[in-house]
Write the structure tokens for this entry.
Amino acid sequence: MTAHTPIRLALAGALLAGLAAPAAAEGVVNLYSSRHYDTDEALYAEFTAQTGITVNLIEANADELLARIQNEGANSPADVLITVDAGRLWRGVEAEVFAPVDSETLTRAIPAHLRHPDNLWFSFSQRARIIFYDKERVDQPPQSYEELADPRFKGMICVRSSGNIYQQSLMAAMIAHHGAEKAKEWGAGLLANLARDPQGGDTDQLRGIVSGECAIAVSNTYYFARAIRADVSGLSDSIDRIGWVFPNQSDRGTHVNVSGAGVLKTAPNRDNAVKFLEYLASPSAQEYFSAGNDEYPVVAGAGLSPSVARLGLFRADSLNLGELGLNQAEAVRIWDEIGFK
């Protein structure tokens, strides 16, 4: 049991029982997080050590947390919502739960395309969504997302289900760059090239390369980097068999997913919440995102863990991630129309 566990359980119990949770309190920030990584506990502990501010933590999936915030209304104890993927952050914007944050620290540190145009949320870590391939079967792997629809890769590709937020955000990016009709053609071409019906998570797509079911897979980088650093069953022992490509390096750059956070309109501890976001953009916190969870930092110059460094640096797509949310409904419609499972 970690030092933060009693705090987590106490706050959660109060909420579930309908009792008054520790909302406004000197030296406290109440965090609602859909990041389910035990290693984040050390991140919060360092913040407390630096500032004296205790982090009260509630963990659940993003939709559950957003519904809870809306149900709690003006009485919500939540100060900060942190979640994964711009599409989920957009849902928070649509629900009007975030308040803008005017922080020179954040706007200076975090690139414009990795924060909301009105500073309603900020990204703090990123995972590139890239192409992995079987070096024994693929001599000339696709160099772009567009090439995933090339008929020469028919029956070779494994990807996530269209119900997954990562797949929706990738389609949303294709809509932003090419328009809906071209994006739909691309999606149909990708569907025709699948080795199997979409199934499982990103690690399962990578395992498909090892098993021989797939020759090419699309995955976020941190799933692969984790298998470099630690033993991941069905993947780590065959890691040298897999090559990778950062797509679209010759044009717009590689699509990224992010973890991001915003301060809530009803935050009872707003000043502490802003301090917490500023801390997440600090050099030590940025390096921790890489060392603790195999992610890429968002702040230039932050150090990379050995597992992430092995994957290498890349040029990211500079499309503002807020556009992914704007295109999300259209992305879902297109996947449904072409019959992508």
In short: Residues 1-22 have pLDDT under 50 and may be disordered. The domain at 5-126+257-303 is CATH 3.40.190.10 (D-Maltodextrin-Binding Protein; domain 2). The radius of gyration is 20 Å.
